[in-house]
Amino acid sequence: MELIIVPHEADHKLPRAVGSGTDNRSVETNSLRQRFLASIGAHEYFSPEMWRAALTEFVATACLMFTLTSSIISCLDSHEVDPKLLVPFAVFIIAFLFLMVTVPLSGGHMSPVFTFIAALKGVITLARASIYILMQCVGSIVGFLIIKTVMDHNASQKYSLGGCTTHGVGTQTALMLEFVCTFVVLFVGVTVAFDKKRCKELGLAMVCLVVAGAMALAVFVSITITGKSGYAGVGLNPARCLGPALLQGGILWDGHWVFWVGSILACSVYYCFSLNLPKEGLPL
């Protein structure tokens, strides 16, 4: 005998699959998660090439902090009539040399400023940017730890381990200078460095000269315009300010936020400004 089941009218009102709604939500959640991970470039966390570049940033930043800070302190401790004027030349030469070496390897950032603007402009992923900034901060700590180990204690106290300070000008003036000088570096240096066509035309050496020159110009302006003896100029590199603040403390924590906020504001404003730059210049 064949058994025939006739569906009742009320059966149509029952859900066909109890778990179907949950499954759909699970699939949608996984899809959103995958899109988010793809948007930040999470795959780079597992890329050996990215970690090699990050290691380059760590070593380069540590060496840069050691050589640059030692040279600046030597300039300030010299018996020249106005030793501050020697600082921009030291910044220019050392920055140029390090850029020439590291740009082909990791992009030559060595500063959260360049990493942050590169992430904003899509040159690198957010995942790579996060690791770069971490390595730059750790590299700064290592570089200044070496300086603190070998430097005379009196000189270390006199120059606050070469750290960043707002002493002498106040936080408002220091913030304004940090923002303006960082923006100048981005406008002059990064505008050229992130333009593939102009980089190809100028070549690596000339691009590094432009970026190093912009940094030296910003340092020169900041240490001369205020006329305050206690102000050591703009940081242009929040990681450089973090290392001595952690190791030396004291007045280096006063207004430390200025060197981060000023840099972030400058990068944000420059990014918005760069969106409106002409794609093609006027013919010469």
Largest sheet: none
Rounded mean pLDDT score: 88
Beta-strand portion reads under 5%
Unreliable segments (pLDDT under 50, ≥5 consecutive)?
A: 1-6
Head-to-tail CA distance between termini = 96 Å
Q: What kind of assembly state do the chains in view correspond to? A: single chain
In helices, the fraction of residues equals 55-70%
Number of helices: 11
Number of strands: 0
* Outline type: globular
Radius of gyration: 26 Å
Quickly give the structural class: mainly alpha
What is the ordering of alpha helices and beta strands? HHHHHHHHHHH
Tell me the layout of helices and strands.
Blueprint: H1 20-40, H2 48-76, H3 87-106, H4 112-120, H5 126-150, H6 153-158, H7 171-193, H8 196-202, H9 204-225, H10 238-248, H11 257-274
What can you see in these coordinates?
By secondary structure, the protein is mostly helical. It contains 11 helices and no strands. The chain has helices at 20-40, 48-76, 87-106, 112-120, 126-150, 153-158, 171-193, 196-202, 204-225, 238-248, 257-274. Helix 3 packs antiparallel against helix 9, helix 4 packs parallel to helix 11 and helix 5 (126-150) crosses helix 10. It is globular, with a radius of gyration of 26 Å. The protein starts with 19 loop residues before the first helix and ends in a 10-residue tail after the last helix.
